[in-house]
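Sequence only, no structure available. Ideas?
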Amino acid sequence: MLRPRITDALKIAMKSKNKAQVSTLRLIMAALKDRDIAARSNGNPDGVSDDDVLSMLQSMIKQRRESIKLYEQGGRMELAQQEAGEISIIEGFLPQQMSEADITAAIDAAIAATEATSLKDMGKVMGTLKADHAGTMDFSKASAIVKERLS
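Reply:
I predicted one. C-alpha coordinates follow.
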Protein backbone atom coordinates (compact mmCIF):
# COMPACT_ATOMS: atom_id res chain seq x y z
CA MET A 1 0.00 0.00 0.00
CA LEU A 2 2.84 2.42 0.75
CA ARG A 3 4.94 1.48 -2.28
CA PRO A 4 2.39 2.66 -4.86
CA ARG A 5 1.84 5.89 -2.90
CA ILE A 6 5.58 6.60 -2.90
CA THR A 7 5.92 5.76 -6.59
CA ASP A 8 2.91 7.91 -7.52
CA ALA A 9 4.23 10.81 -5.43
CA LEU A 10 7.58 10.53 -7.23
CA LYS A 11 5.88 10.66 -10.63
CA ILE A 12 3.84 13.71 -9.62
CA ALA A 13 6.92 15.45 -8.22
CA MET A 14 8.86 14.74 -11.41
CA LYS A 15 6.05 16.13 -13.58
CA SER A 16 5.80 19.27 -11.46
CA LYS A 17 9.61 19.60 -11.43
CA ASN A 18 9.75 19.85 -7.64
CA LYS A 19 13.45 19.12 -7.13
CA ALA A 20 13.33 18.85 -3.33
CA GLN A 21 10.47 16.39 -3.41
CA VAL A 22 12.03 14.35 -6.21
CA SER A 23 15.35 13.99 -4.40
CA THR A 24 13.68 13.04 -1.10
CA LEU A 25 11.40 10.50 -2.75
CA ARG A 26 14.36 9.01 -4.63
CA LEU A 27 16.17 8.64 -1.29
CA ILE A 28 13.13 6.79 0.08
CA MET A 29 12.97 4.54 -2.99
CA ALA A 30 16.70 3.77 -2.77
CA ALA A 31 16.44 2.87 0.92
CA LEU A 32 13.41 0.72 0.15
CA LYS A 33 15.25 -1.11 -2.63
CA ASP A 34 18.20 -1.75 -0.31
CA ARG A 35 15.88 -3.27 2.29
CA ASP A 36 14.10 -5.34 -0.37
CA ILE A 37 17.39 -6.75 -1.58
CA ALA A 38 18.40 -7.63 1.97
CA ALA A 39 15.00 -9.26 2.57
CA ARG A 40 15.26 -11.31 -0.63
CA SER A 41 18.67 -12.60 0.38
CA ASN A 42 17.09 -13.72 3.66
CA GLY A 43 14.46 -15.76 1.82
CA ASN A 44 11.62 -13.24 1.55
CA PRO A 45 10.91 -12.93 -2.19
CA ASP A 46 8.26 -10.23 -1.73
CA GLY A 47 10.63 -7.77 -0.05
CA VAL A 48 9.81 -5.86 3.12
CA SER A 49 6.32 -5.40 4.54
CA ASP A 50 4.51 -2.10 5.00
CA ASP A 51 5.35 -2.21 8.73
CA ASP A 52 9.03 -2.42 7.82
CA VAL A 53 8.60 0.48 5.40
CA LEU A 54 6.98 2.54 8.18
CA SER A 55 9.87 1.69 10.47
CA MET A 56 12.34 2.71 7.75
CA LEU A 57 10.56 6.04 7.26
CA GLN A 58 10.62 6.73 10.99
CA SER A 59 14.34 6.00 11.13
CA MET A 60 14.89 8.35 8.18
CA ILE A 61 13.05 11.07 10.08
CA LYS A 62 15.10 10.39 13.20
CA GLN A 63 18.34 10.66 11.19
CA ARG A 64 17.26 13.98 9.75
CA ARG A 65 16.32 15.37 13.16
CA GLU A 66 19.79 14.49 14.41
CA SER A 67 21.31 16.15 11.34
CA ILE A 68 19.26 19.29 11.98
CA LYS A 69 20.71 19.57 15.49
CA LEU A 70 24.23 19.20 14.17
CA TYR A 71 23.68 21.69 11.35
CA GLU A 72 22.21 24.24 13.77
CA GLN A 73 25.17 23.81 16.11
CA GLY A 74 27.48 24.36 13.15
CA GLY A 75 25.60 27.44 11.97
CA ARG A 76 24.45 25.80 8.72
CA MET A 77 20.85 26.94 8.78
CA GLU A 78 20.25 26.37 5.05
CA LEU A 79 21.13 22.68 5.44
CA ALA A 80 18.97 22.42 8.56
CA GLN A 81 16.04 23.86 6.59
CA GLN A 82 16.66 21.37 3.78
CA GLU A 83 16.55 18.49 6.27
CA ALA A 84 13.34 19.89 7.80
CA GLY A 85 11.80 19.97 4.34
CA GLU A 86 12.73 16.33 3.82
CA ILE A 87 11.14 15.44 7.16
CA SER A 88 7.85 17.02 6.11
CA ILE A 89 7.87 15.06 2.83
CA ILE A 90 8.62 11.76 4.60
CA GLU A 91 5.98 12.42 7.28
CA GLY A 92 3.41 12.61 4.50
CA PHE A 93 3.63 8.83 4.15
CA LEU A 94 3.25 8.05 7.85
CA PRO A 95 -0.12 7.51 9.49
CA GLN A 96 -1.35 10.03 12.05
CA GLN A 97 1.02 9.98 15.01
CA MET A 98 -0.28 9.22 18.50
CA SER A 99 -0.71 12.03 21.00
CA GLU A 100 1.11 12.10 24.34
CA ALA A 101 -2.03 10.89 26.13
CA ASP A 102 -2.49 8.02 23.66
CA ILE A 103 1.17 7.01 24.01
CA THR A 104 0.86 7.00 27.79
CA ALA A 105 -2.33 4.92 27.66
CA ALA A 106 -0.72 2.43 25.26
CA ILE A 107 2.32 2.14 27.52
CA ASP A 108 0.15 1.51 30.57
CA ALA A 109 -1.71 -1.20 28.66
CA ALA A 110 1.55 -2.80 27.47
CA ILE A 111 3.00 -2.78 30.99
CA ALA A 112 -0.15 -4.44 32.30
CA ALA A 113 -0.21 -6.99 29.45
CA THR A 114 3.42 -7.99 29.93
CA GLU A 115 3.20 -7.79 33.73
CA ALA A 116 6.37 -5.68 33.71
CA THR A 117 7.66 -4.63 37.11
CA SER A 118 11.24 -3.44 36.60
CA LEU A 119 13.64 -2.06 34.01
CA LYS A 120 14.58 -5.65 33.16
CA ASP A 121 11.15 -5.96 31.55
CA MET A 122 11.57 -2.88 29.36
CA GLY A 123 12.42 -4.98 26.29
CA LYS A 124 9.17 -6.92 26.57
CA VAL A 125 7.15 -3.72 26.89
CA MET A 126 8.87 -2.03 23.95
CA GLY A 127 8.46 -5.18 21.84
CA THR A 128 4.74 -5.18 22.55
CA LEU A 129 4.46 -1.48 21.70
CA LYS A 130 6.37 -1.90 18.43
CA ALA A 131 4.18 -4.83 17.42
CA ASP A 132 0.95 -3.00 18.20
CA HIS A 133 1.77 0.58 17.19
CA ALA A 134 4.29 0.41 14.34
CA GLY A 135 4.31 3.65 12.39
CA THR A 136 2.01 5.55 14.73
CA MET A 137 4.14 5.93 17.86
CA ASP A 138 7.33 7.89 18.46
CA PHE A 139 9.35 5.16 20.13
CA SER A 140 12.02 7.50 21.46
CA LYS A 141 9.35 9.29 23.52
CA ALA A 142 7.78 5.97 24.46
CA SER A 143 11.11 4.57 25.60
CA ALA A 144 11.66 7.47 27.98
CA ILE A 145 8.16 7.09 29.43
CA VAL A 146 8.53 3.30 29.82
CA LYS A 147 11.86 3.78 31.58
CA GLU A 148 10.29 6.32 33.93
CA ARG A 149 7.35 4.04 34.70
CA LEU A 150 9.47 0.96 35.36
CA SER A 151 12.02 2.73 37.52
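The chain is about 75% helix and 0% strand.
Hope that gets you unstuck.
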